[in-house]
Amino acid sequence: MIPGSGVPAFTLLGVRQAKLPVLIAAPHGGRSYPAEIESRMRNPGIAKLRLEDRLVDELATAVADLTGAATLVAHAPRAMLDLNRAPDDLDWSMLGEGRPTGQVHSSANRRARSGLGLVPRRVSGVGEIWTASLSHAEVADRIAGIHEPYHRALSRALGEIRKAWGVALLIDLHSMPPLRAAHPGERATEFVIGDRFGVSCDDALASRALQFLAKNERGAAHNRPYAGGYVLDRHGSPPLAIHALQLEVCRTLYLDARFDGPSARMPALARLVAELVRALADEILPDRGEHDLPLAAE
Fold it and tell me: Which residues, listed in sequence order, are joined to residue 170 by a DSSP beta bridge?
């Protein structure tokens, strides 16, 4: 549960009923803010908009409806705790009591230094997020109530899928601000495929994803600028037939001009990502053709 609200920190659906060995997770889509948390934010409206992968949870659900994949959707907001960061990836200067004895100083960690550690400290266009320091107890409660249960649930779900199918694929779904084209005349990057530089999933999966996007005339990049984070590090294990791939989607593809609400393009993007999911499922189930994978009601 989310400390201070009584709202579930996440929802896990469809693992045993999955029609293909894929789980789609949305760790940065949470929008359930306890009132006390929102009251401590300097500019809550813009800070929330910049921190969230706005409505990516709805995109994940739409793709799951089209494919029959399982889903793990966070409700706890990234502002409280980032599920794609390690539990010790914290800027300890945010805590009124300072760094606990025995903890490595956060200056050793690039994410915490940039302001986007376990509890985000600052964000582009906003600056410092919070009006007051955190306590050790608050951070411990968030880890115990949100972070640990989420990752336990994710680990168990992937284990169940692998047991049922012999293999499992986690697609960690995120959204990103628009990226410029690398060179004049090139297509702007709309998707980034992250696999921790080949560590978190079989090379053939990333290749299949990039080939699919190229075939559909979509601008795509591999690992740059987003290679994946703690989720892929912790849960991707190709030798154990558990693959993890991060998919970053440009927000212009499904949100309005303010990146606040859904646009009319959301259904088309969901169909495209659903086709990609089926192609990746086909890649990890070589004995079954892509056309043999069942479709959920569209």
Answer: 23, 244
Contact (CB, 8 A) for 117 and 90: yes
Percent of the chain with pLDDT over 90: 80
Q: How many residues does the chain have?
A: 298
CA-closest candidate to residue 61, choices 276, 273, 285: 273
The token pair that represents 36 in the structure block: 């006390």
pTM for the whole structure: 0.91
In the three-class reduction of DSSP (H, G, I as helix; E, B as strand; rest coil), residue 78 is classed as coil
Token pair 């069942």: residue = 294
Starting at the edge strand found earlier in the chain, the sheet holding 242-250 runs: 10-13, 70-74, 22-26, 168-176, 242-250, 191-194, 220-222
Distance CA 245, CA 257 (A): 28
Nearest to 69 by CA among 153, 12, 9: 12
Tokens 């906003």, residue located? 126
Q: Taking 70 as the threshold, does the pLDDT of residue 99 lie above it?
A: no
Strands (E), 127-241: 127-128, 168-176, 191-194, 220-222
Rounded mean pLDDT of 76-97? 91
